[in-house]
Specification:
The structure holds two protein chains of two kinds. Chain A has 18 helices and no strands. In chain A, α5 runs antiparallel to α14, α5 runs parallel beside α15 and α14 crosses α15. By secondary structure, chain A is mostly helical. By secondary structure, chain B is mostly helical. Chain B contains two helices and no strands. Classes of the chains: A mainly alpha, B mainly alpha. Chains A and B meet through α5, α16 and α18 of A and α1 and α2 of B.
Chain lengths: ~425, ~70
């Protein structure tokens, strides 16, 4: 009897914790899955096509790295109740504040354009014209924010996150060698051909797509808008850990698909990969196209909100999804201006979309180091963080990660500016 | 009618910019003093950050002039 009573007690405890998680889940899952945006899917598709399964181990390493960076935003948001933009203004003054805010707005807007490029490219595979894609996407994004509750927005976003799992059945359809995949996931090694400039560029691109500046701003603002408290930090951590697990799983399955079917091809975009896959198996191509559209959409909904939240925080406007348009007019005006203007740019005939995509990488490099350095300093400020400040080990891990990310993303940005620079060897 | 619209738009734009500049000035006043407690490490990190950004701007200028050539 005692055994059954204990079992029932444990079940009740786990069930209660699970229900609590369902209430608090959201910011971590969404930011991590949206991290696999249109640019991310392109990077993974190109990585798989070029090197097969050989770089899977590198993705496995990137999962914990993304977790450690984003976990800091959970603590900072839950303890200070400030978004990242406001936190920078408060802690470092207006010079760094304006620098971060304006850089974020520019980076986000340019990234938003790349998301629309991905979405229109994906839908063009189904012969949907660009103007229709942009109109429908702006309509859905408008509907998501105008219903007046953060909770509803979050649950719709999670629904779109589940669509991203479409790469899992796609990967099983290509019948990969499971043993080979597992081996490549756990054994770090260089692909055949050794360390080349092309490999270096793809490694940097994978790092660049896993940690983006908007993610830091988005998750911290989402934690604040959701109203998470210090006691919720544990669940926030779990949410972020699960999100990082999913982001790596999805990336792995994209690589499995292109690494099995398109091995040896030079893939320039995920849209191109979808078209090539269509030639082999129309369902595979369709799955990749749907996934690409969904990835662009998830990126767009998060990036546009990250900007609107940041602007609202600094200008002191009402800036919550829990407020309606009358209560927070500037917040929504900024949101709609960002998505509509980005969508329109994609539709302009002859718009320099390749240049914009290139420029995003360079501008992101100027913002990412600042955002990460500020994050570490803020997490060490005992006056505002109290017992939630970074421990010695957290500092060792986070400073190592941040230093490596800054070095790699800088090399990535410079290689985007000067493509021939690293072709010496 | 034309002059009314002209006045309306000119005044509207003028008012918008006046309000925006006033808000920016207010934000600058509000956040004039950095609140984070600094030590030699944070000062060093911020100094490195400034140096890094200056270097990046220099690289961007280099790219710009390379393109001009």
């Amino acid at each position: 009897m005692n055994f059954w009573a204990n079992l029932f007690y444990k079940y009740r405890r786990w069930w209660k914790a699970f229900k609590m998680y369902l209430i608090l889940a959201g910011p971590g899952l969404i930011v991590m899955i949206a991290d696999n945006d249109a640019g991310g899917i392109t990077t993974y598709a190109a990585t798989g096509a070029k090197y097969g399964y050989h770089l899977l181990w590198f993705l496995v390493i990137l999962g914990p790295i993304a977790y450690y960076v984003q976990e800091m935003t959970v603590r900072l948001g839950a303890v200070t109740k400030r978004g990242h933009a406001e936190a920078i203004f408060f802690a470092f003054g207006s010079f760094w504040g304006w620098f971060s805010l304006l850089d974020l707005i520019l980076t986000d807007w340019l990234t938003l354009i790349t998301e629309f490029i991905g979405m229109t490219a994906a839908m063009s595979i189904f012969h949907v014209p660009g103007w229709l894609t942009v109109t429908v996407v702006c309509g859905i994004m408008g509907f998501m924010v105008l219903q007046g509750r953060y909770w509803t927005w979050e649950k719709i976003a999670i629904l779109f996150c589940t669509v991203n799992l479409i790469y899992i059945p796609a990967a099983f359809m290509v019948h990969p060698s499971v043993g080979n995949v597992l081996k490549n996931c756990v054994v770090p090694h260089l692909p055949p051909g050794g360390f080349t400039n092309e490999l270096f560029f793809l490694l940097m691109a994978n790092v660049g797509t896993t940690i983006a500046p908007w993610m830091v701003f988005f998750q911290q603002s989402a934690v604040v808008d959701k109203g998470m408290q210090e006691k919720d930090i544990g669940m926030g951590r779990l949410d972020t850990a699960l999100g990082s697990l999913f982001t790596i799983l999805i990336a792995t399955f994209v690589i499995i698909v292109t690494g099995t079917v398109l091995r040896g091809m030079n893939i320039e975009s995920a849209g191109q990969a979808a078209i090539e896959l269509m030639k082999t198996n129309k369902y595979l191509g369709t799955f990749l196209a749907i996934g690409l559209f969904d990835a662009g959409f998830l990126g767009a909904i998060c990036i546009s909100l990250a900007s609107s939240w940041a602007f609202g925080e600094v200008f002191g406007w009402a800036h919550s999804l829990n407020k309606n348009v009358k209560e927070a007019p500037w917040f929504y005006a900024f949101y709609f201006f960002a998505i509509i203007s980005a969508g329109v740019v994609v539709l302009i005939p002859g718009a320099p979309l390749v240049l914009i995509t290139l420029f995003v990488q360079v501008i992101a490099v100027t913002l990412l180091p600042a955002a990460l350095v500020f994050l570490i300093i803020l997490l060490n400020d005992e006056a505002s963080m109290g017992k939630y400040k970074n421990t010695l080990w957290q500092n060792i891990i986070n400073i190592t990660i941040v230093t490596a990310i800054i070095a790699l993303s800088t090399a990535y940005g410079i290689s985007a500016l000067f493509p021939n620079l690293f072709k010496g060897s | 009618m034309g002059s009314f619209l002209y006045e309306f738009f000119i005044n509207g734009i003028k008012k918008f910019f006046e309000n925006t500049f006033a808000q920016i000035a207010e934000i600058n006043r509000k956040y004039a003093v950095p609140q984070v407690k600094t030590n030699k490490w944070t000062n060093f990190a911020l100094l490195m950050l400034r140096g890094y950004l200056i270097l990046l701007i220099a690289i961007l200028f280099l790219k710009f002039f390379t393109l001009l050539k």
